[in-house]
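Re: the 363-residue chain
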Amino acid sequence: PKAGSDAKKDEHRDEGLLKLSQEEIQRAGIRVETLEEAEVKDELVVTATVKPNQDAVVRMAPRVTGKLVQAPARLGDTVKAGQVLAILDSIEVGEAHSAYLLAVTESKLTATALERAERLHAEQIIATKEYQRIRAEHDKARAQLVAAADKLRILGVGSRGASGESAVSTFPLIAPLTGVVIEKKARIGELARPDDPVFTIAYLSVLWIEADIVEKDLARVRPGAEAKVSVTAYPGTVFAGKVTYVGAMMDKETRTVRARIEVPNPKGELKPEMFATAAIATDSKRKVLALPASAVTLIQGLPMVFVEEGEGFGTRPIEIAEQQGGRVVIKSGIKAGELVVVEGVYALKARQLKSQIGEGHAH
């Protein structure tokens, strides 16, 4: 038995502790870990904005003015490379197509004439001069055909209807890449012009996270550094990326340099123009007190951990400095060397709540 003052201290310390037998501890899956200092990479935390990958954004406008007659692609649609976004009707395309069909017909006629002239020349029925004239006419017709086909190609419509059909004045606007339609200004019946894009398509499976780095932190950020991005819409979710670019110029007004982080976005959770927080890994390291995130629980809205004390488990309010992957860095509330529950926290929390109800203290 301990002396009076020591015994009172032990009684006071044991008040409010959850006491479990060894069998109960095993059944609840409770595991304790000694809190120790760990060396982690220092991080620079900055605010940022989600942006489309500008290397994979295409603003679609026709090469020639035309009236929109169909616009099946809708805002927000995912389109594939080669998919038709709209159909346009153009007088210029119709004229170019007519010229192409005429050149095709002329080329065929002169080809037939040249074949006949070759036979007659071989039989010495026509003079060499006449044969050469017919051959020159065919060469000229072929050159005109190539020029007419080139005109259609330059207009971006291709050579269709090469079998003597009537001229076609409509042509499709084709998606050059797979992506999402993020802007649509195509209205049926209106004119679409080469200087005014009617669709904007962005490849959103990889996004840019743009952050402004202040002058004093510039030496800590380098291309290739790992970064963790988080947004308000998905609390607790970390999007992993890498710094791909650090600007060469400083903004003289803000004294900052623009840095870019590329982040995979296969599920489309990140949306352009979202505000984000980016934690960029630096080359320096520091020692911190860190615990698995599973060790922390909310009790009455405050972050708590369970600590093994004497013959029981007690709660301890803590302050979290930051998250490092699946671990949390502790700012205050517990010290190195203490025994912290890292598994079985839910069972202890349920047991504590049950005991509080029994004592009539639950709110």
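Confidence is low (pLDDT under 50) at residues 1-13.
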